[in-house]
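Journal club prep — side note

Before the paper discussion, L.F. wants everyone to see what a predicted structure for a comparable chain looks like in token form. Sequence:
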Amino acid sequence: MYKILTLNKIAACGTDLFDRSKYTVADMETEPDGIMVRSANMLEEEFAPTLKAIARAGAGVNNIPVDRCSEQGICVFNTPGANANAVKELVIAGLLMTSRKIPAAIDWVKTLKGKGDEVGKLVEKGKAAFAGPEIMGKTLGIVGLGAIGVKVANTALSLGMKVVGYDPFLSVNAALNLKPGVSVVKSLDEVYACADYITLHLPYNKDTKDTVCAESLAKMKDGVRILNFARGELVNSGDLLAAISSGKCAAYITDFPNDEIIGVEGVVAVPHLGASTPESEDNCAVMAARQLIDYLETGKIVNSVNLPECELAKTADCLVCVIHKNVPSIITQITGVISAGGGNIENIASKSKKDWAYTMLDVTGVVTPSDIEKIEGVTGVRVL
């Protein structure tokens, strides 16, 4: 029996995919084979030796110690695209809220409670304070053209906006999904120079921290409006507030509030609502469950953040799945150990992803995992 630990409430349409004749699914498992998680902080967690995979029901994995997982032979999955439509819709709402000062206008209307017959006249007199531009004809700059960025680009184009996108890692699939008319440029500076609105859709890491800062803001158009529904750390709050104060930035909207930006005029801070739709939670749960099932039962990897995509059909006696460092001679050592034990390798698939690699071997004969585990650089071995 495989044991699945859930660290957050996971939609039943996902957990119901686990065949209960093969799996137990609970929030109190002590020696799990797999973990399903949403936002729970796992950075300080000690992992049981039985743990083989973690599936994050969402895109970001900042709550998971990915590097440590690789060292311990644990495959980490996320669910890119499962919440893309939900986030896209919130981004479009953000475009309108920052343009038309809608949140501030609603708050002002609340102050008119109790004014009786005067409300109508007060509304007509005060509404001018909340005037703002239409988005049609304006230029939207998109930083990051992944699943969410592509959807935002296509919808903004349909709303009559000019769309300019930048992504140094633009995939073939993403490029094919972009509508004709979306302009893909080769540098951030090109986005900054022309965009009336800039929306961020890139992961947070040491290279993307403070993407929006004093230096980048200086390159943007005066009165730029910035949207951040990706990660709070992508924006330097102090530099952003200085730009708001000076008028360089007309508005900032984010669903990653912090104490520094809450209540500041020109800033719209909403709770982290990007993926908070029942449809999104269902999509993420289903995708995460299927990834765990595929990996645990067949060794197949899709949408791992630390290991490459790889699969190999089992046609012989056993399928040997090895997580190892991406260094010379390891595959030779693995095959040598299998051959020395009397096994015959029928087929092999091996892929790498940066510092790590994953090798699958279809073997006739018996394979002893502990013999392969002794190879320096190997962190995980399973025989299916």
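L.F.'s comment for the group: The first helix runs from residue 12 to 15. Keep this in mind when we get to the figures.
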